[in-house]
Amino acid sequence: MDTVSSDSVGRFLTVADAADILNISTAEVTELIRTAELPAISIGAPGRWRIERPVLEAYIAAKYEEARRMSLWQESDIASLPEIARGMIIKPTGGDDD
């Protein structure tokens, strides 16, 4: 259950708030910030990051879109074509074309 409601916090979320919403560790959120995958700003002392709630919601939506696209790609005909690896053609196994 989301223990961080929009009524309980203001505009900015702490790393702990974001970790709670995403159900991951604070270290994982910090790594997402460090790699710029999750936009955040540093407020006050070094390492005191804040994430705007709409930015976190956009991050979540982008992850859903990424998962949707990956699923579509994996289901497409392109995914079943022979792939080239190290100069050899490797056919997918277990298909109906065998």
Question: Could you please describe the fold and organization of this structure?
Answer:
Helices cover 41% and strands 15% of the residues. The protein has helices at 15-22, 26-34, 53-75; strands spanning 12-14, 41-42, 49-52, 83-85, 88-90. The relative contact order is 0.11. Strands 1-3-2 form a three-stranded antiparallel beta sheet. The longest helix is centred in the middle third of the chain and has 23 residues, at 53-75. With 98 residues, the protein is of the alpha+beta class. Helix 1 (15-22) crosses helix 2. The chain has three helices and five strands; from the N terminus they run βααββαββ. The model has no long low-confidence stretch (mean pLDDT 82).
Summarize the structure.
The protein is an alpha+beta fold and 98 residues long. The chain is built from three helices and five strands. It is elongated, with a radius of gyration of 20 Å.
Task: List the strand order in the largest sheet.
Answer: 1-3-2
The biggest beta sheet reads:
3 strands, antiparallel
Task: Report the portion of residues in β strands.
Answer: 15-25%
What is the residue-mean pLDDT, rounded to a whole number? 82
Distance between the termini: 47 Å
Could you name the ranges where pLDDT drops below 50 across 5 or more consecutive residues? none
Radius of gyration using CA atoms only: 20 Å
Shape call: elongated
Alpha-beta content class: alpha+beta
Number of strands: 5
**Helix segment tally:** 3
Helix content: 40-55%
The SSE order reads EHHEEHEE
